[in-house]
TrEMBL record:
Leading EC class: transferase
Domain Choline/carnitine acyltransferase: 175-737
Catalytic residues (UniProt): H474
Protein name: carnitine O-palmitoyltransferase
Annotated organism of origin: Sander lucioperca (Pike-perch)
Gene that this polypeptide is encoded by: cpt1a2b
Family to which the UniProt record says this protein belongs: Belongs to the carnitine/choline acetyltransferase family.
Record SUPFAM superfamilies: CoA-dependent acyltransferases
Length: 762
């Protein structure tokens, strides 16, 4: 909008008398207010830098130190032991005797500041040491050691001040590099139930050869990296697992989040879009101002790394020939909108203020009412982001590097986020609610393959009947970060912003707002768009999704058995897979490593000797189940505390490639398929949802595509005390499929307790 105002702010005509300059004061006022808003943000960011830079102390503590030193000086005591006098002597200024008190005061200020900074560094070092203690995680519930009790007390004292979002970042410990011998030992233990005796013997020999020859050499390079890098895993993980992938990111990388299960706050598409966009921008404001509370380990005061929040908005993954690049802009005052084949730029700020939800609804309705047809090549342009990356990179370089195409593409990529106004209706509705729920999940995951912009950090989908959903790109952050954003959005939309009785957003409308801007394109050839669409469509048609709300019981009943709900579900999935396939497979469960700075994820290998023993055994199931549960919890804790297997082996493999050496062991390990890939979507802000008074406002969570062509992708969210929602995906083309759709995996989950010796004893 600022560009449009600048265009009309100054108008001039050349006359015989000279130049007649005309000023638009309204436009100049808009520009002035936008500038004021920009400067306010800069001042706010500077203030936050100071506050988090001195945490766990406060800026005001400097004044306390200065007053304390002055007081002791007044009492003719020198707490600096002569340092103040030395500072005064070395000041690069000359002064007379009458000016000596003034320069003494200046020396006191210098000494006090240095003392204050030293105290801050000491406090931050102590906080870092405290956050490096992880033994608390391995202690049994109700049996807390005295060491842990003292640790908790000290941590609470140092965290007593209200922190900003990024206050803990510099105090978080660095992810340690595990000992190679321990990693190999844990790896061999994890694959034992999956290999025959000869296969296990062969793998043991490969591991021993790797450790005695190449392994220690690679380990030294990895430790060297860990000395200077903030995190020895994250940059390589982002680049080689995500950005260097040349296949489609749709389905393979992007994941989705769904709306409420039973409730649609309004049936008006424009109104739902108005509140959703507003809620997202309010969240962005909290991120920019660092007003969000730092995420913590549930039920504790232990902070988690917040680095992933930095690239949440105004971020796009841009394609390259060999690798993609994540581009992030400081701020955007507009969003990109897609509707019926047309792209729009919608300004969400005017005169330095955020539009009201009702104003955004009004603007969205203008887009919905716009009868203009798509331009040639515009309708399916988004398919370029859904297909292979190299053709998209070449197309971008050839046709989008200059002119109107570049300006329009910039409007999408620099937007705060992407919005799709879908012309379909979705949700659990009609005569086939279960089938419609599955189609709803597929729609958010890939849509029509051209009506989403899969490169954006996240895209919002608003359906014709008011249902909503979210599609997120994976390289910049993991699901918990996006889930936190989506929880806030749903809760703010339904409970804070709300709707009028007729379903419209609340607030007033300034009807003089300029129309949303149509983006203009000049696409000389649609051949590559059609080719990318064909690739994406084949992938989308092969994906099967099943959403399974399980209401027989939830974590409340599981916790009464003194068993971890996550372990309970993971072991049940092992049983379900065994009944489906008649065997076991390498199982991936995502665990976070955000206890460490810039930590992302680690793998929990859920298929263990103990879980397999439980599944196979018909007798003594209760005892075996508890052993399997305890084993799984221990694996999860080890992954969280930096003692995992897969990230360490992955980084060793990357080092080997840089050195140009081959390792048969690492090559085989990293080629093993994850036929069962699982992830829990955590509920992080239960205080936002009043399930007692509003029990129908239940989040469905989200899901992702299968990792292996012949495997399953399973995501689940534990909602309240009595419900678990599952999202299962697989491919129709899988040659090992035993059923017609991925509901096959869910069916055994509802019956694992017919392993009746266990369940009947509850």
């Amino acid at each position: 909008m600022a560009e449009a105002h600048q265009a009309v702010a100054f108008q001039f005509t050349i006359t015989p008398e000279g130049i007649d300059l005309q000023l638009s004061y309204q436009a100049l006022n808009q520009i002035y207010l936008s500038g004021v808003r920009s400067w306010k943000k800069r001042v706010s960011r500077l203030r936050n830098r100071v506050i988090k830079g001195v945490y766990p102390a406060s800026p005001s503590s400097w004044l306390f130190v200065v007053i304390a030193i002055l007081a002791t000086m007044y009492m003719r005591s020198d707490p600096s032991m002569g340092l103040i006098t030395k500072i005064q002597q070395h000041l690069p200024l000359r002064y007379t005797e009458t000016q000596e008190p003034l320069y003494t005061m200046l020396s006191v200020l210098v000494f006090s500041t240095l003392l204050w900074l030293s105290l801050i560094l000491a406090l931050r070092f102590c906080l870092k040491l405290l956050l490096s203690y992880h033994q608390w995680m391995f202690e049994q519930h109700g049996r807390v050691s005295n060491t842990t009790k003292v640790w908790v007390t000290l941590l609470r004292l140092l965290s007593s001040r209200k922190p900003l979002l990024y206050s803990y970042q510099t105090s978080l410990p660095i992810l340690p590099v595990p000992a190679i011998k321990e990693t190999l030992s844990r790896y061999l233990e994890s694959v034992r139930p999956l290999l025959t005796d000869p296969g296990y013997k062969r793998m043991t020999e490969l591991a021993n050869q790797f450790e005695s020859n190449l392994g220690n050499r690679l380990q030294r390079y990895l430790k060297l990296k860990a000395l200077w890098a903030t995190n020895y895993v994250s940059d390589w993980w982002e680049e080689y697992i995500y950005l260097r992938s040349r296949g489609p990111i749709m389905v393979n990388s992007n994941y989705y989040g769904m709306d409420f299960l039973y409730v649609t706050p309004t049936a008006l598409q424009a109104a739902r879009a108005g509140n959703t966009i507003t809620a997202l921008l309010l969240y962005r404001r909290k991120v920019n101002r660092e007003e969000l509370k730092p995420s913590r380990v549930p039920g504790t005061v232990i902070p988690l790394c917040a680095a992933q929040c930095e690239r949440m908005f105004n971020t796009t993954r841009t394609p390259g020939v060999e690798t993609d690049v994540l581009q992030h802009w400081q701020d955007s005052e507009f969003v990109a909108v897609y509707h019926k084949g047309r792209f729009f730029r919608l300004w969400v700020y005017t005169a330095g203020r955020l539009l009201s939800p009702r104003e955004i609804e009004h603007q969205i309705q203008r887009i919905l009412d716009d009868p203009s047809p798509p331009q040639p090549g515009e309708e399916k342009l988004g398919a370029l982001t859904a297909g292979d990356r190299v053709p998209w990179s070449q197309m971008r370089k050839q046709y989008f590097s200059s002119g109107i195409n570049k300006r329009s593409l910039d409007s999408i990529e620099r937007a705060a986020f992407f919005v799709t106004l879908d012309d379909e209706e979705q949700g659990m509705r009609g005569e086939d609610p279960a089938g419609n729920l599955d189609r709803y999940a597929k729609s958010i995951l890939h849509g029509k393959c051209y009506d989403r912009w899969f490169d954006k950090s996240f895209s919002i989908v608003i359906y014709k009947n008011g249902k909503s959903g979210l599609n997120a790109e994976h390289s910049w952050a993991d699901a918990p970060t996006v889930a936190h954003l989506w929880e806030f959005t749903l809760a703010t939309d339904a409970f804070q912003l709300g709707y009028s009785e007729d379903g419209h957003c609340k607030g007033e409308v300034d009807r003089s707002l300029p129309l949303p801007q149509r983006l203009v394109w000049d696409i000389p050839s649609e051949a590559q768009v059609c080719s990318s669409l064909a690739v994406a469509q084949a992938l989308a048609d092969d994906v099967d999704c099943h959403v399974f709300p399980f209401r027989d019981f939830g974590k409340g009943r599981i916790k009464k058995l003194k068993i971890s709900p996550d372990a309970f579900i993971q072991i049940s999935l092992q049983l379900a897979y065994y009944r489906d396939r008649g065997g076991f497979c390498l199982t991936y469960e995502a665990s976070m490593t955000r206890l460490f700075r810039e930590g992302r994820t680690e793998t929990v290998r859920s298929c263990s000797n103990e879980s397999c023993a439980f599944v196979k055994e018909a007798e003594q199931c209760r005892h075996l189940f508890r052993l399997a549960s305890e084993r799984h919890q221990n694996l999860y804790r080890m992954a969280m505390t930096g003692a995992g297997i897969d990230r360490h082996l992955f980084c060793l493999y990357v080092v080997s490639k840089y050195l140009g050496v081959d390792s048969p062991f690492l090559k085989e390990v990293l080629s093993e398929p994850w036929r069962l890939s699982t992830s829990q979507t955590p509920v992080q802000q239960m205080e936002l949802f009043d399930l007692k008074n509003y029990p129908d406002f239940i989040s469905l969570g989200g899901g992702f595509g299968p990792v292996a062509d012949d495997g399953y992708g399973v995501s689940y969210i534990i909602v309240g005390e009595d419900m678990i929602n599952f999202h299962v995906s697989s491919k129709y083309s899988s040659c090992d499929r035993t059923g017609g759709n991925c509901a096959v995996l869910c069916c055994p989950f509802s019956l694992p307790f017919s392993h009746s010796h266990y369940y009947c004893g509850i």
